[in-house]
């Protein structure tokens, strides 16, 4: 029995050590992207397409709707959305909610380029899925006072500039733009500190605010 207890304690220690190792984002991306290739998408589905902000939520539970499916991946950029769109396009979903741009901005991509990538994505969906309702959500603010994101240093103003471009693009293409930015920004132009614990990603309360903002469009 003593040997069993010691073995168990050793396994717990090893497990704890493994949990402290950072996850390679490329490995995570591949796991999730390849899973999405096999998961079905139906014409009754509502797709949440995005990066880590989308990835971080249990959308079907938030909306209490089994047709809402998460297609967010940590670290993704808008061209990355395009590369993994085929299974979604084949499914002809009822609605697609797109949230993207902050990772593009972190790679020093300007507002015009983000909007250009979004144009390619939206026009592809419109061409391939003419019955799908498309919703482009604004880029959310971040907060380098909570945690310093070196890749986003000094880029706070690019977010509202990008949102202005996305809003104009949606008006031009005849799709819905959902401006979430005012719900999350403080008077300094930062993500409200109470909504995040790392300056970029969202806490539970923030997801409830996001959900409530989308509910009229999800239920429409």
Task: Outline the secondary-structure elements.
Elements (H helix, E strand, L loop, with lengths): L1 H19 L4 H14 L7 E5 L1 H4 L3 H4 L5 E5 L5 H6 L2 H6 L3 E5 L2 H5 L4 H18 L4 E5 L20 H16 L2 E3 L2 H4 L19 H15 L2
Parallel strand pairs: 1-2, 1-3, 3-4, 4-5
Helix pairs in contact: 8-9
Give a short account of the largest sheet.
5 strands, parallel
Task: Order the strands across the largest sheet as they lie in space.
Answer: 2-1-3-4-5
If helices are DSSP runs of H or I spanning 4 or more residues, what is the number of helices?
11
Q: Rough shape?
A: globular
* N-end to C-end Cα span: 61 Å
Using only C-alpha atoms, the radius of gyration works out to 19 Å
Short description:
With 220 residues, the protein is an alpha/beta fold. The chain has helices at 2-20, 25-38, 52-55, 59-62, 78-83, 86-91, 102-106, 111-128, 158-173, 181-184, 204-218, and strands at 46-50, 68-72, 95-99, 133-137, 176-178.
Written overview of the protein:
By secondary structure, the chain is of the alpha/beta class. Helices cover about 50% and strands about 10% of the residues. It contains 11 helices and 5 strands; from the N terminus they run H-H-E-H-H-E-H-H-E-H-H-E-H-E-H-H. The protein has helices at about 1-20, 25-40, 50-55, 60, 80-85, 85-90, 100-105, 110-130, 160-175, 180-185, 205-220; strands spanning about 45-50, 70, 95-100, 135, 175-180. Strands 2-1-3-4-5 form a 5-stranded parallel beta sheet, with helices on both faces. Helix 8 (about 110-130) packs parallel to helix 9. It is globular.
